[in-house]
Fold this sequence. Notes:
The chain is mostly helical. Helices cover 70% and strands 3% of the residues. Strand 3 (72-73) and strand 4 form a beta hairpin.
Amino acid sequence: MSDNEAEITKRLSRYLPHSFLVAVFAYMFWIRTLPSSSIVTEDGLLFSANDSWYHLRVVGHFVENYPTLFPFDPWTYFPYGSGASTGYGGLFDQLIATVAMLVGLGNPSQMQIEMITAYAPAVFGAATAVPVYLLAKRLTDRWTALLAPFSLALFTGQFLNRTTFGNVQHEAGEAFFVGFAVLGFIIAIERGYREKPTFAHFRDRDWGGLRKPLLGSTIGGLALAAYMLTWPAAIYLLAPLGAFLLIQMVRDDLNDVSTEYLAISVTGVFFIASIPVSIY
């Protein structure tokens, strides 16, 4: 093989999977925006579910008071009202409001707010292909991993229904962030296993040996926090993560492998995740 052929093969191997992923995203976004012609009218948008109007109202409130977050909504969950523990004002709505503020240069019109809110589930649904690909890539190779987003693009059912234009549901953000939450946890465990941090590193203040494991835990913690701030019931994800921790510690102990890396990595993930969740 000549040098030119080797260079072309190298470039294809590097960029072709990414190009395919972009094509999958474009297709998923296009298929989810097909209902827009029946939703957008001269008088405004006709959202397709009750939840859509709720999210539009929350986004509008955030835009009017940006960046202040009203911690309680007395007009839902009668007669108790809604707070952060019920999912009111989660990260899903905050991100939509932030985009509306950017597009409207700090003062978006009602039409801009409605259009951005309507497009949000389609964007989140299509973008879910990214964490799905990255997760599959860690289990196989970059070429085989392309089957994962390709399969996702063909999914129908509730995943497609809840990520279409005008059907604004928090499940769209939930599907996106749970992928990154699991991916972040895997990254934290992988870095811990590779670098093998110990409590002696903390005692000796060996920050060089702790840098990569702590960075991995930070990534995992922030991803997990984003998921929990999107959907309060996401705390149940801690159950399978905890089960993995228990099984892996037993397995490592039976193989005479130190479990300190697990303790440090997982503790770091949960600690980092608890900070933004506690503040919110």
